[in-house]
């Protein structure tokens, strides 16, 4: 699949191609790598990719709705064994010890985390700039920023690197970068997405993990996939 063709699809569209065996997960992973190589030097949206995850993408999709769909996650702890540095030199080298419940649901739905995107330091500032990884630029105008804190995710989706990318929102950290970059950003209502395993959930339940997307139908499908409380 050519990069220009890949970038025209939303997540649901690519999932349909996967189910019909018109494209393989490995091909989609290669498209993401090509997209990163093409635009990330100008945008600084993607921190790194995971070679083992990319190598693990298969050639045959499975039964899950998004099975075989590679994506990117925000630079917060979200998946066991992966870095989550909060965009801060104070947390440099931190490795997540356990899966976030939301990400476990996304993975069960077939999404594969193959890298991480930039954030403002500890997700506090409304600009995706940090002393650890620098400033992220807007795909529509690289002289401008992307707001924050899930700015790397918004830029990656807007630039066509991925159709969907994980972020988190306490006071606008999904919604404002989505608005700056012209993508779909939803903060689900409190209780719709579990904050486990953190005690009382991040920021006493104010911060909620979800996905930035290219289409309303992607957002609806992922909300169905990620919704639901956990015992306790």
Structural description of this entry:
- This protein is α+β, with helices and mostly antiparallel strands.
- The chain has eight helices and seven strands, in the order αααβαβαβββαβαβα.
- It has a three-stranded mixed beta sheet with strand order 1-3-2. It has a two-stranded antiparallel ribbon with strand order 4-5. It has a two-stranded antiparallel ribbon with strand order 6-7.
- Helix 5 (101-108) links the parallel strand 2 and strand 3 (111-117).
- Helix 6 runs parallel beside helix 7 (175-181).
Question: How many strand units?
Answer: 7
% residues in beta strands: 5-15%
CATH architecture: Alpha-Beta Complex
Top-tier CATH class: Alpha Beta
Summed up, the domain count is 1
Q: First CA to last CA: what distance?
A: 45 Å
Major sheet, described briefly?
3 strands, mixed
Low-pLDDT sequence parts: none
Helix and strand element order? HHHEHEHEEEHEHEH
What's the alpha carbon Rg, rounded to whole Å?
A: 16 Å
CATH superfamily heading:
Amidase signature (AS) domain
Mean pLDDT: 94
User: How many individual helices?
Assistant: 8
Strand order of the largest sheet: 1-3-2
Reported by name, the CATH topology is Amidase signature (AS) enzymes
Fraction of helical residues: 25-40%
Main structural class: alpha+beta
Morphology call: globular
């Amino acid at each position: 699949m050519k990069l220009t063709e890949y970038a025209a699809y939303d997540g649901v569209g690519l999932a349909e191609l996967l189910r019909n065996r018109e494209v393989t997960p490995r091909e989609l992973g290669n498209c993401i790598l090509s997209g990163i190589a093409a635009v990330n030097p100008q945008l600084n949206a993607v921190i790194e990719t995971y070679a083992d995850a990319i190598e693990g993408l298969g050639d045959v999709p499975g039964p899950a709705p998004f099975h075989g769909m590679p994506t990117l996650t925000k630079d917060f702890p979200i998946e066991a064994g992966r870095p989550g540095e909060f965009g801060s030199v104070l947390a440099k080298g931190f490795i997540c010890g356990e899966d976030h419940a939301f990400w476990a649901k996304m993975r069960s739905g077939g999404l594969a985390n193959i890298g991480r995107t930039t954030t403002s330091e500890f997700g506090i500032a409304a600009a995706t700039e940090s002393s650890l990884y620098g400033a992220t630029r807007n795909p529509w105008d690289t002289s401008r920023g992307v707001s924050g804190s899930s700015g790397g995710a918004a830029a990656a989706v807007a630039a066509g690197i991925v159709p969907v990318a994980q972020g988190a929102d306490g006071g606008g950290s999904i919604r404002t970068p989505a608005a700056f970059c012209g993508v779909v950003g939803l903060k689900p209502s409190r209780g719709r997405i579990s904050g486990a395993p953190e005690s009382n959930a991040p920021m006493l339940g104010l911060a909620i993990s979800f996905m930035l997307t290219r289409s309303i139908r992607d957002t609806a499908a992922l909300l169905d996939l990620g919704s639901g409380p956990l015992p306790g």
